[in-house]
Amino acid sequence: MAQGARTAMRRLLFVILACAQAALLAGKPDAVVAPDGSGDYTSVQEAISRAPMRTGKTDPRWVILVKSGTYRERIHVQRERGNILVRGEDAANTVIVFDQHANLPGPDGKIIGTFRTPTVWIDADGMIWENITLANDAGRPGPRDGGPPVGQALALRVDGDRVVFRGCRFLGWQDTILTTRGRQYFVDCYIEGNVDFIFGGGTAYFERCHIHSLADGYITAASTPEGEAHGFVFADCRITGNDSVRTYLGRPWREFARTVFIRTEMSDVVRAEGWHNWNKPGAEQTTFYREFGNTGAGAGPAERAKWAPRLGTGEVARFTPAMVLGGADGWNPAAAPTVHFAGDSTMADKGDSSYPERGWAQLFRERLAPGWRLVNHAANDRSTLSFRTLGHRETLMAQLNAGDWVVIQFGHNGEKSQDPERYADPEVAFPANLRAMIAEVRARGAHPVLATPVARRHWAADGTLTDTHGAYVGAMKSVAAAEGVPFVDLERITREMILAAGPEGSKEFFVIFGPGAVAGHPEGRQDNTHFSEAGARRVAAAAAAELSRLGAPFVSQ
Description:
Elements: H1 3-25, E1 31-33, H2 44-49, E2 62-66, E3 69-72, E4 75-77, E5 84-88, E6 94-98, E7 120-122, E8 128-130, E9 133-136, E10 156-158, E11 163-166, E12 169-171, E13 177-179, E14 183-187, E15 190-200, E16 203-207, E17 210-222, E18 232-235, E19 238-241, E20 247-250, E21 258-262, E22 265-266, E23 288-292, H3 321-325, E24 338-343, H4 360-363, E25 373-376, H5 386-389, H6 392-399, E26 405-409, H7 429-443, E27 447-451, H8 471-483, E28 487-488, H9 490-505, E29 510-513, E30 525-531, H10 533-549
Parallel strand pairs: 1-2, 2-5, 3-6, 4-7, 5-8, 6-9, 7-10, 8-11, 9-12, 10-13, 11-14, 12-15, 13-15, 14-16, 15-17, 16-18, 17-19, 17-20, 18-21, 19-22, 21-23, 24-25, 24-26, 26-27, 27-28
Antiparallel strand pairs: 29-30
């Protein structure tokens, strides 16, 4: 079996096991913890410590239900007890909390330091926590009456690999969450603190999480080991803060820190410069701090630290849960049916929210059916040739599972006969490249769709639109018919859209603005190829309607 097929098979197995496990866990728990004594235990630690040692790969997961209440205790999960799910009855009212902090004396009379303070310490691999609050209420660092000054105080320390947190809350001040190693997935969680409150050397993915800054400080302090591909990734999250708070997105605890924020809504609590070098100028050359597609008053791309550039279009597809957390075993805790988009700049996500250009697949997220994931591999200046030679095809195929869909749209850049790195003639190379891509998608059990390049707003003197794609539209239509692939004629759809709006009305669909209308572009812009948000939304809606008519299951009804 080829390596690509083996990878796809591993990922499919993860999806099947995840679905089966979800169905199993919806049933009766194996143990119940209740503070009033109505369950099997009154202590969460006791319930975990008495769980069976299920270390076999096929052993069923032990499920512990924690009833609402406050459990003032410290938890340690030893390495052999990872095959456990701890599920709270209600995240807001099921609370595990303690108040140990770094300046307290240990048995030897010396202060214990940060790493020995966690309320919950997980040393086990494969554990799952759901709907529960993990907190350290030692309080804000600083002076304290009747005791040593409050120091760093962890709510959570994770030393385990493949650990998942769903719908959990993490409360603290300085150093709320420490991930020392391994891979962790946080989804739909709430995390608060003020200084370095998400830190460490692990690889952690935060999806749809709410990050809240209690006071001036820093959200992250990664210590990613040199050579690791990923550190912390935040996708589709939200950042807020208390009144008058100003915070940095991160600073490098160690010189090779890696942190990325994608499509995150940032309030004005985020400082304009975004990132701090921890007074280590040399770290500016070794850290990997990136952003893409962030929005809100704190996104401010024009004022960001110059040593932390944005990701380019197409690069963002390398930062999905499957790519960041996959590792050698193909772990994907966020496995879901996925529609992938492969194409050029008219389709691509745009990373600068202050500039009025959007790709139509970027706005297709508004049309996505529940339970589906969208990964946009489209990138500026790509053709059927350069999409392969620059590594985008490889990234797509690495994430493709049986049952996924791939919408393929090229043409604009392949038409450039003077550019050997992108040109693909419509008679031989262009259709051959399309057929090769169709074959690769089908080999992984996925479903390809072909879409023609969108029309340009090039008006002729007689009031018609100039055809700028020539034989490429027909070539794609012929390949679709010959290969039996669903076909969306976006060139016709967008041509009709432009014609119906007319020379003036169609301007709103494209990146057209006058001098001084957009910061950083004093000369204005007359771009008749790329879409404004309104145009991208119209094209996404039209594409969704046509795909729905063709029976594509990923379109919201």
